[in-house]
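Morning!

This is the sequence you dropped in the shared folder:
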Amino acid sequence: MNRKEFNLLVEGWRNFLNENSESLPLEELQNLIDSHDFFNDKNIKVSDSNIHESGEYYLLGTDERFEHMKERHTSGQNSKPGSKFFSKINLLEIIKDIIKDSPNDTKDPTKLKWIEVEHKNNIGTEEIKKASAKEAMAMKQMTFSEVFSNKKIIPMLQDKGKIITNSEGEKSAKQGTDLSKLPKWKKGDGEAYMIERISVSSGEGEETNKISFISRIVGKLLNGKIFIAPITTFPGSDVKDEKGESITDRNKLSKHGYYFVTK
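The structure's back. Tokens below.
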């Protein structure tokens, strides 16, 4: 390489850096966090390490946050039945890829949803199947409990039908008590438990390239881009009721004919 060619190479590299050195609007993003009803008391500090720009969106979350989201849907010793991500995928990069396109569900003004988006590669296995409600309800029932720490929002979730009970209710649930008869957790009850009961049957899942990602809108920036934060993500198809509405409560899956396959 001669001197002229070297100088052209250096100049080209400098131009590239200049074109791609636009910094993230961290101050504006932080202001949106601090003024948001859901996030303003969570002591979130935005930085280059937890803000990801993709398409028309700024996405909140560290690499560890997305790794944790993946692990909740990955096969393991303590994993619950449900569709699973492959353990080796980079979930953050997949989500950054799919949000380059517009969301396909914007009915909720507080959320943006990418539902059943097809990725270029298989990303996991779909382990939920459909039968009649009668068949699903007759299958083996499994009950799960999980400590629910965000007690501030428990009343709101209970109003939406979520089963959140106290320690005595958790014991009763594991003994097979009808979920409708469990005591509702109330302030002063101590530990709170989210309860799930699902239908399961032996079988294997099928590989899928579909993924859904649901986000909360934090706000809109002056440059027109939208700041979003992850709520949940999962592989495979969406589950819907007879009206075509997504079923977000796993306790209601059986009565709509859905069941999980387990090995």
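Headline: The first helix runs from residue 3 to 19.

More detail when I'm at my desk.
O.
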